[in-house]
Amino acid sequence: MLMDQSLIAGLGNLLSDEILWRARVAPGRPARGLDDTEARQVFTAMRRVLATATRAGRVPPRPTWLTGHRDDGEPVCHRCGERLRSQRVAGRRTLWCTHCQH
Q1: Spatial separation of the C-alpha atoms in residues 78 and 57, rounded to whole Å
Q2: Which of 25, 31, 54, 59 is deepest in the core (most CB within 10 A)?
């Protein structure tokens, strides 16, 4: 849902990946399958990520952000140390941690 431009225009791969990583939600999960707590986590993460990115004027490649590791040769989650998985979801490349995101 986050990358559906008809619902939320301008939210691309990097921001969507960061939001879902912070909310600990896997990118393949349908929005309708989230419980109330998970939906609140996504909403809270979205507000924080967008506020930070807006202040920076871009998606900041911070080492504490998932997006800061996106282009590493063998990217790993800096939260748990597991290798990050890359795959196409809804026709777009996404990156996530199979250990941290369910």
Answers
A1: 24
A2: 25
Residues 15/3, Cβ–Cβ less than 8 Å: no
Give me the DSSP letters along the chain: -TT-TTTSTT--HHHHHHHHHHHT--TTS-GGG--HHHHHHHHHHHHHHHHHHHHHTS----TTSGGGGTTSSS-B-TTT-PBPEEEEETTEEEEE-TTT--
Q: Which phi and psi angles does 8 have, rounded to 5°?
A: -135, 90
Whether residue 4 is predicted with pLDDT greater than 70 in this model: the reply is: no
How do residues 42-71 score in pLDDT, each as one tens digit? Answer: 999 999 999 999 999 998 878 889 988 888
Nearest to 54 by CA among 93, 11, 23: 11
Query: Are the C-beta atoms of residues 11 and 3 closer than 8 Å to each other?
Result: yes
Task: Give whole-number Cα distances, 30 to 1, 27, 65, 102, in Å.
Answer: 7, 8, 23, 12
pTM for this entry: 0.89
